[in-house]
Amino acid sequence: MATHSNFKNALIAFLAPLPCILFYLSFLHHYHNKNNSLWNWCNDHPILLVNILFFLNVNVLFWFIALLQSSLHWMIGLYWMVIPVMQLHFYANHPMAQYNQLRSWAVIILTWIWSIRMIHNYFRRENWQWGVKQDWRYIDMSQQYGKNWWCISFFAIYLSQQVLQMGICLPLYVVHSVDKPWSFLDFIAIFICFSGVIIAFYADTQLHNFFSRNQKLKQLDQPIVPILEKGLWCYSRHPNYLGEQLWWWGLALFAWCLGHNWIFIGAFINSICLGYVTVLVEKKMVREKYRADAYKLYQKNTSVWIPWFKSSSNGKDKKN
């Protein structure tokens, strides 16, 4: 039964984005037809087109599928890691695209690396299964809104995701709409993006290993370790979030190099949202009795995002 459900969810995930993919491929095949007003409009409004496709195919269709699956909103989390790649190739192959080939290849390679790392971490965390769990934040909200959650979820999960993801992915459009020579700042953007991916990879791997060890301790009826404070987690309480932020700020730097000074607003709003998520995560950690005291001490002695050495009070607390 579990295998059947896993296969069904995998099939749904692969088939769900097909409407917008097929429409875009049809557009690319027929856009030269000047007598067709629809293709002319799609040719002249790439950003508006991608937002309409996102609204219809992700917001409406994914939400409807979630309702059919008893409000299991797992696909939006999975496609958060895939949609930037789809947008990247949407902008790069659009008839209006113009860009520096070297910069485009750098952004394409980096975005694919980022996406593959995120997808690998997602399925590793889900024990390589499709749609088994959904984000704990959605579960909390569903309990908060009760019977109205089916309607509120469309705005709280899907529409809000569109605003955020369309905003932070705008650098992908800028990179493929401005043709300027390669500059030294492009090297800095590559370094920031790649550093973010590496930091997030190691942080998530250390977190995964921590949970795996605790699971084995549970099976052996031994006490588990309440918090992770080794490796990158010794210097930052959320190094995985730090790595993710570096990725989006580095991506925005590519567009800033091309003269779009406003482009950082997407990364800035994303940082604010992740800051709010950080508060929710830490409140959740403190609510769990078996780790509450240890985590409060961890909060006191360890930097939130930016890595730094332990507070000097740590040694005194350990002695006490």
UniProtKB/TrEMBL annotation:
InterPro entries: UstE-like
UniProt entry keywords in alphabetical sequence: Membrane, Transmembrane, Transmembrane helix
Superkingdom classification of source: Eukaryota
Sequence intervals crossing the membrane: 6-27, 47-66, 72-92, 104-123, 152-175, 182-203, 246-279
Any one of the GO CC terms: membrane
Keyword Transmembrane recorded: yes
Listed name of the protein: Steroid 5-alpha reductase C-terminal domain-containing protein
Species of the source: Anisodus acutangulus
